[in-house]
Specification:
Strand content of chain A: under 5%
Structural class of chain B: mainly alpha
Number of helices of chain B: 7
Distance between the termini of chain B: 70 Å
Number of helices of chain A: 21
Largest sheet of chain B: none
Shape of chain B: globular
Strand order of the largest sheet of chain A: 1-2
Radius of gyration of chain A: 23 Å
Strand content of chain B: under 5%
CATH architecture of the domain at 1-80 in chain B: Up-down Bundle
CATH superfamily of the domain at 1-80 in chain B: NADH-ubiquinone/plastoquinone oxidoreductase chain 6, subunit NuoJ
Largest interface: A-B, 76 and 57 residues
Order of helices and strands of chain B: HHHHHHH
Number of strands of chain B: 0
Shape of chain A: globular
CATH topology of the domain at 1-80 in chain B: Four Helix Bundle (Hemerythrin (Met), subunit A)
Number of strands of chain A: 2
Structural class of chain A: mainly alpha
Helix content of chain B: 55-70%
Oligomer: heterodimer
Helix content of chain A: over 70%
Chain lengths: 513, 191
């Protein structure tokens, strides 16, 4: 129900009652709004918000600064517990449950997406320990901003209404703009922050414009009501609005032709922030894209599929040219967004029939990608501790002899990014292309799979450099020991192998029965 | 009569919004913004939202506007005409291309809006004569259906304040800050 109708209906009621304030009906309204379901849906976000407030209080007292990591981890764990509750104990009978006047979805998929966002945040935060030097006095603010982003992601994934989604989008974007420019003494970091901010603000404006046009055409901003309006969605006005909104979401998800900002921003930002951007933002954008895929007309599904193939091609051929591993991972992130877009195309092509399969494939893919890309970025931020030349492909030569553990981890992550069986990346690709084939997009799927093979070319180049090429003369080996980063890499590697070998614990009947 | 006032207010807000972007003096931009806010407040009033109209004038037209002016004066932006900013049309191909694409998009949107049947409001939307009783209703809507968006916006403001602090305040750095490295130098070093 849109805002204007709600206000008017209650106003008319009040007028009918002679304008008197009725405490009982207000109490009833509150009781109907803040139900147990609403509390369970809000629990993950509320725990993160409490974490933010406690972190801010800790900043006030010198003695409390030591407990910052504990507060951060506590907030993440409490939030994960809330998400686990949503995942395991949401009854999936018939219609999905919507709370807070129909603005928020309570479902298993929201819980699983929440876990994915929290994992992305945790991985990014762990590699940020001891990463900053000059900026170390600002670590408190860094943690606060990093803890805000997953709240926005959860709002985006659960939003059943364009206004709620928009607030979530801003809540995700604004901390990331600041974090991208966090190393303010470095020009490339400032450049990354500014580029991301200007283009991101433009993208958000496009979303608002599109949502306004859609509202003008249909008279509602709520997704369940938009499903009901039927022909009004086919008017040129609504179509223009949907196209603008898709453009904005494609920008966040780095889909061709909205991908141009990605390499510069990913390379210039601090590596932990890049990790969060590459995994978390992408997951949140796709969570909402899949939820709103019904807005895409069936006739446009092929176009989305073609965009997916183009994104894959641009990302993979761009990555082939790179000499720096961080920039290469940025281009490969574009390619992965292209693969994920197949799920949206499949959902749109089947007119919503395959939306459960598409969502499941996307969740699995993102779960694997969070740990794969997150682990690779964690290794990069570890290597950067000894100087940034260590992250070029030349700088990685001989790493296999000098630091076999690091080289083995990187090899695992790169193979998983390439989609080699027995790693998480393979399982994700398997389900995504499976959904696309189910939606009869055979030709596009074949093109996508062939392009994924191209990707192996540049992943294996790094593996060869690490294991088979000797280090250059006079190049000092990376020496730094960073326990947090090492723990992060170990955690990611374990999860990549676990998802690859035992996908059942994520994909089995427990995910979405 | 109501239509006449509506069209006058709507035209005012659109023209004033253009003025905000086109004015070269930042103070003029702020004053144009004020005119735009007044136009929007009039539209609210005509739709029956007296409270929203009053708040728009008081909070945006009053407080926020003073804040804007304060920041503009604080930054002490010099005489814009004496500065280096050349007229956009002399800036080579890219700005012209951008303006061209912008014009095409605007024309297309205008065409679609003009062709759309806007007279068809959703059924049941009848504005009560004499206006709504919006304060209570707005509060109820804000604290029931829109709780999440409302509270999300407050977290957003908090995060923005923290972010601005991080980007603006640099004295706390305990380590001596080296002079900024230029991008080209960084790239050369990498190569």
């Amino acid at each position: 129900m849109s805002l204007i109708t709600i206000v008017q209906e209650s106003a008319l009621q009040t007028t009918a009652q002679g304008g008197a304030f009725d405490p009982e009906s207000t109490q009833q309204l509150f009781a109907n709004t803040f139900t147990g379901d609403a509390a369970r849906a809000l629990a993950p976000m509320v725990s993160l918000t409490v974490g933010i407030l406690v972190l801010l209080v800790c900043e006030l007292f010198e003695g409390l600064k030591k407990i910052r990591p504990a507060v951060f981890l506590g907030a993440i764990l409490a939030s994960a517990w809330g998400c686990w509750g949503l995942w395991q104990h949401t009854p999936e009978i018939g219609a999905p449950v919507r709370v807070l006047g129909g603005t928020l979805l309570v479902s298993q998929q929201v819980g699983v997406w929440g876990m994915v966002f929290l994992a992305a945040t945790l991985v990014a935060w762990m590699q940020a320990r001891k990463y900053y030097r000059q900026e170390a006095p600002f670590l408190g603010e860094h943690d606060v901003l990093m803890l805000t982003a997953p709240i926005g992601m959860m709002m985006m994934a659960g939003a059943q209404d364009l206004i709620t989604f928009f607030i979530g989008l801003e809540l995700l974007s604004i901390p990331l703009y600041c974090l991208a420019a966090f190393r303010r003494v470095r020009n490339d970091s400032v450049e990354a922050g500014l580029k991301y901010f200007v283009l991101g603000a433009f993208g958000v404006a496009m979303f608002l414009y599109g949502a306004g046009l859609l509202y003008t055409a249909t008279g509602t901003m709520s997704l369940p009501e938009l499903r009901q309006v039927g022909e009004a969605l086919e008017s040129p006005l609504a179509r223009t609005g949907i196209a603008l909104m898709l453009g904005s979401l494609f920008f966040k998800a780095s889909i061709f032709p909205f991908h141009l900002w990605v390499p510069d921003v990913y390379q210039g930002s601090p590596t932990p922030v890049t990790s969060l951007m590459a995994t978390g933002t992408k997951a949140a954008a796709f969570a909402f894209l899949l939820e709103a895929a019904f807005l895409v007309p069936v006739s446009a599904a092929t176009l989305i599929g073609v965009l997916a193939v183009l994104t894959l091609a641009v990302g993979n051929f761009g990555a082939l040219m790179q000499k720096d591993l961080k920039r290469m991972l940025a281009w490969s992130g574009i390619a992965h967004a292209g693969t994920l877009l197949f799920t949206v195309a499949a959902s749109a092509a089947s007119d919503g029939l395959l939306s459960a399969e598409a969502t499941q494939a996307a969740v699995l893919y993102m779960a694997a990608y969070v740990f794969t890309a997150g682990g690779a970025f964690a290794l990069l931020s570890w290597l950067e501790a000894d100087g940034e030349h260590h992250t070029t492909i030349d700088g990685l030569r001989g790493l296999g002899q000098r630091r076999p553990g690091m080289a083995a981890g990187m090899t695992l992550f790169l193979l998983s990014l390439g989609g080699i069986p027995a790693t998480g990346g393979f399982i994700g690709k398997f389900f995504v292309f499976g959904a696309a084939v189910q939606a009869d997009m055979i030709a596009l799927s074949i093109a996508g799979i062939l392009l994924s093979v191209v990707a192996l070319g540049y992943y294996l180049r790094v593996v060869i450099a690490m294991w088979m090429q000797p280090a250059k003369d006079g190049q000092a080996p990376p020496m730094a020991e960073r326990p947090w980063a090492a723990a992060c890499v170990g955690f990611c590697a374990a999860m990549v192998v676990a998802i690859g070998v035992l996908p059942g614990f994520l994909s089995g009947s427990t995910l979405f029965p | 009569m109501v239509d006449l006032i509506f069209y006058a207010a709507a035209t005012l807000s659109v023209l004033a919004a253009l003025g905000v972007v086109l004015a070269r003096n930042p103070v003029h931009s702020v004053l144009w913004l004020l005119a735009s806010f007044v136009g929007i407040a009039t539209t609210y009033l005509l739709s029956g939202f007296q409270f929203l109209a009053a708040i728009q004038v008081l909070v945006y037209g009053g407080a926020i506007m003073v804040l804007f002016l304060f920041v503009v004066m604080l930054l002490n932006l010099g005489d814009p005409d004496a500065e280096h900013d050349a007229p956009v049309m002399q800036g080579g191909l890219t700005p012209r291309l951008g303006i061209g694409i912008g014009c095409i998009v605007a024309a297309l949107t205008l065409l679609t809006v003009a062709n759309a049947n806007l007279a068809q409001l959703p059924e049941g939307v009848v504005l009560p004569i004499g206006g709504l009783d919006p304060l209570k209703q707005m509060a109820l809507a804000m604290f029931t259906q829109w709780t999440l968006a409302f509270e999300g916006a407050s977290v957003l403001l908090l995060a923005t304040a923290v972010g601005v602090l991080v980007l603006a305040k640099r004295e706390r750095a305990s380590v001596a800050v080296s002079p900024p490295q230029t991008l080209t130098a960084a790239k050369e070093e990498a190569a």
